[in-house]
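Researcher: I'm preparing a figure for a lab meeting and need a structural model of a single chain. I don't have an experimental structure, so a prediction will have to do for now. The sequence is pasted below. Please return the structure as tokens so I can convert it later.
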Amino acid sequence: MGADRAAQLIGNLPYACAMARLKCHRAPDPLPATDDAAGQCRFWKANYNTALGAGHTDPAHIALFAQAIEA
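Model: Understood. Here is the structure written out token by token.
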């Protein structure tokens, strides 16, 4: 990735959102329902963060995400 693209991901919100959307669009799994916190967390971990990533989908994190969805 070129330095300009990396800078765009940091400083250009529409570009960053578009790239994240493309990443999800290319994922083999369908997006879970918007109110399915556990499903959304599993999708994120499998398709965005990866198995080797530092993100977690344990019950505590899922509960926090569920609270964010309800907010």
